[in-house]
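Notebook, p. 212. Picked up where the previous page left off. The plan for this session was modest: take the two constructs that came back from the sequencing core last week, fold each one, and keep the raw output in the notebook itself so nobody has to go hunting through shared drives later. Recording the first one now, exactly as returned: residue sequence, then the structure token string.
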Amino acid sequence: MIEQQIKNDPFAAMRIAEYRHLMLGRFLFIMGLRMLGTLVGWWIYELTNEPFAIGLIGLSEVIPAVSMSLYAGYIIDISEKRKLLLKGVTFYLACALLLLFLSTKFTSAQLSKNWIAFCIYIIIFFTGIIRAFTGPTFGTMVASIVPKQLLQNATTWNQGIWLSASVIGHATVGFLIAYIGNTQSLLIICLMITLGFSYLYRLKAKPPLNEKGVKTGLASVKEGLAFVFKTKEVLGALTLDLFAVFFGGAVAMIPVFAKDILNVGPVGFGWLNAAADIGSIIIIVSLTFSPLHSGQGKKLLLAVGGFGVCIIVFALSKLFWLSFIALVISGILDGISMIVRGTIVQMRTPDHMRGRVMSVNSMFINSSNELGQFESGMAAKLLGVIPSVVFGGSMTLFVVIATWLKAPSLRKMNY
């Protein structure tokens, strides 16, 4: 009876003090990270006035993030995770401080716009390396803090915290850029990351669970990959997310829509960036109190299909409010996908392999988001901005239809 009450308590995971510290630290870190990503997209477009330059941001980050992911998983599994996480946050703060220096009037007087853009790409490249380690480490910490019967609740909170930080970061930095400029905005970002570090510092040490039994090097990496590829539900959910976000990454072109198509400036840019995350928060809160109890696979496919439709509506819209609503609904549908995918990965992964499996998960996510950003920039250059986003939404629908027909086990999946 007590165990059932705990499972039915929507705040069960958050009642664990150490988990609260992890979530507060993650909230502040992700908020700073998302503020930084949003600001850099706007900053690069200001410097270059070229949509393709925005796509290069994604390429600069995804190359190291994906290249390092499998090795990062091996390192996470054999490392003390608290120390590794704190190192990653510290290095990310150093990158933010370098961007702060680049944004100053002193640097602008010394370097041309092209050189500043080049330096931004280099720094973003290093943030990609750091994210290869920090993202999966956060994921492994969840399962090491909460009991297994609370993993679904903890995963829902984890996704909700991430999305809350993302929406607040996106919206806030739009206003900050408009009213205080890039330099002061970057200073606030550095303060956010520092405060996040202070909460993560309170976590207990998390030594590896398999110091003696883990395979070394390439053999360990292969073991993690083999687990993902033989666990069809995990592979199917990750692959669907990979291709859907790769082709449906309209958010990469939001600076262009805000500035040149909808003409809403940096404030409207911030709200458009936040729109999808607002929708995701709405559904995350709903699912926290009313979890999905059945038919998760079918709901996942329908949600991703609806996401593709929303991207097409956004591309064709000439009205700010319609564009905003389309992105909010896309976020609601994407939130369902995130919860289903995240819960499958957490529940189906053995403890001793979490670092490697979370890194494969991170590799899929980084590939879809950052490569999707590059694909959007390249497609915009070849097809034009609006046709490129319509193409992306249409391809997302095609991927869903193909998955529905070719992967019946995913369609029928329940957990």
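Okay, moving on. Second construct, recorded in the same format:
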Amino acid sequence: MLDASPGVSRGELKETELPNGIRVLTERIAGVRSVSVGVWIRQGSAHEPLERRGESHLLEHMVFKGTERRGPRQIAMALERLGGSLDAFTSREHTSFQARVLSEHLPEALDVLADLVRSPLLREEDLELEREVVLEEISAMEDTPDDIAFETHAEALWDGHPYGWCILGTRDTVGSIGVPTLRDLHDRRYRRGQLLVAGAGYLEHDRFVEEVRRGFEGVVGGSAPTVPAVSLETPPREAREERPGAQVHLLFGSRTPGRGDSSRFPLILLSSALGGGMGSRLFQRVREEMGLAYTVYSFQSFYSLAGVAGVYVGTRPEWGGRAVDAVRAEYRRLAYEGLPADELREVKNQVKGQVMLSLESTSARLFRLAGMALYDEPRRTLDELLQRVEGVTAQEVAEVAARYFDPDRQTVLRMGPA
């Protein structure tokens, strides 16, 4: 039997690295009867060559078409018959498979996840069917105006970098990917890549590690794929996309540092103050005072090398100019004034409350646990995370606002009727 390194413990957060390089993390949560468990593979759309965009997402779909031990219906029913759930997603930098079950069914959940990751059949006849499913997914995105607006804005913002590519790929690239390509990707990343397995809920760390060791025995450690270098210093751009519809979709955004940078927490507070709820500056100004939009909010994403902070507004075409001016004015106030002490106190309380409320589910705890490991962050307890938010100073906020919320630094997209 393989030997594992001694578990590293930090309160209820524990980690063990198996000899084959798989990292195993758990968080035991008292007072629940369920467990959320997931497997993360370091492979996403940002690691793909231009001509094979969408291969990571297509492979994620294909593993559900059958394994050496289970057919597609058996995969679908394996945990549903127990009252559990099974899901997967592909992101810019990772592919993940997750399950949520009663704690007594944790061995079954880990067995299904290990089977999916290790032993998909990847057959030609299945690819022809699943390719059509993905093409329908692309069609659904294209028929959803705000979805296509976000994709178009990302392309403009990242200007050719893979962070701006659609995770689904294109019709041409998805249509050209064959089984040999998917098998090669699976062999390089799922069998010889960097894998992480995490669980949160009612579980015991040592027993969890033993189940993972059994399920993933034979997987060989490997190196992580790399993301092309990216600059944070980009000139502002204005893009227009003519598209029929009743609204013009307005997107603003700028590149920010990645998840591990110290500016992440000031950025979170600034984004929340700008458009993070009904009391935010943009909601009050654009919707309540000016009546220009039903939907207006800020957004942000953090990747390993960079991130994005931005704003979305949907409004009538004839009001687009006024909405742009209003958003730019709020950007300018933040960039030149930062946040006054009373507003900074309020937004800290808001963010801390949102964090605490969001982490009342085992699934949210699972994603937080995995995120810390995937991005090599310090493993903070909830109290330490809240202290980090509380410790952000007005000076830090002002410096970050001046750098990333300057209205003249934004990439702006206007998509809608001429």
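Notes on construct two before I forget. The chain has two domains: 8-215, 237-416.
Flagging for discussion at group meeting.
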